[in-house]
Specification:
By secondary structure, the protein is an alpha/beta fold. It contains seven helices and six strands, in the order ββαβααβαβαααβ.
């Protein structure tokens, strides 16, 4: 889709190897912890974290109401067609567009949850732009409930909405609840593993 503006932050030396951090469903780029970002910069890397479309300060889909994700998830698990205003391929194109805008030819991609799926799509569709791929708590698309679902408590937390999107305290409370619910072993939704595939530097 054209006309998408992504809010991003840039850390480290502009000439250093780039790492693009891709956050998960409904989470802004600042959810990547500062100490993690600082550690990557200290290791000699340039770090970019950004808000996906429809999240944080990036472009929102005009006129769209907040979707109820329960039905699309059930349809996806049943391998039925899910209609959506945009796809993972579109979100992968957003990531590549950001790299283009920053003049970065090739980057190390690190994605968590939905961000891992976006990063995997970038690697599949634009392999020449990916130096390495790290996909954390994500999914390969395997529809088996053994791989695609975790504990119901974590799923409920991920699908919940904050009490208010304009109250900073309510947002902090919401994201804390989501993080705590999905951090316990075996509780993660959309996969229970970390997949790391390295390419050239």
């Amino acid at each position: 889709m054209r006309g998408i503006e992504l809010d991003y932050e840039n850390f480290g030396d502009a000439g250093a190897p780039a790492v693009l951090l891709v956050m998960g469903l409904g989470m802004p780029g600042v959810a990547w912890p500062d100490p993690f970002v600082d550690g990557l910069v200290a290791a000699g890397l340039r770090v970019i974290r950004y808000d996906n479309r429809d999240c944080g300060r990036s472009s929102k889909l005009a006129g769209a109401r907040l979707p109820d994700l329960r039905l699309p998830i059930v349809r996806a698990l049943l391998r039925r067609r899910v209609s959506a205003p945009y796809t993972l391929d579109d979100m992968a194109a957003d990531a590549v567009g950001l790299l283009d805008a920053l003049g970065i030819g090739r980057a190390h991609l690190v994605g968590v949850s939905l961000g891992g799926m976006i990063a995997q799509n970038v690697a599949a569709l634009h392999p020449q732009r990916v130096a390495s791929l790290t996909s954390i708590m994500s999914s390969t698309g395997n529809p088996s409930p053994r791989f695609s679902m975790g504990k119901p408590r974590a799923l409920r937390a991920i699908l919940s909405r904050p009490a208010s999107t304009s109250d900073a305290e309510a947002l902090v409370e919401h994201y804390t609840h989501v993080s705590a619910s999905s951090a316990a072993p075996g509780s993660l939704w959309m996969g229970k593993s970390c997949v790391i595939t390295s390419g050239g530097s």
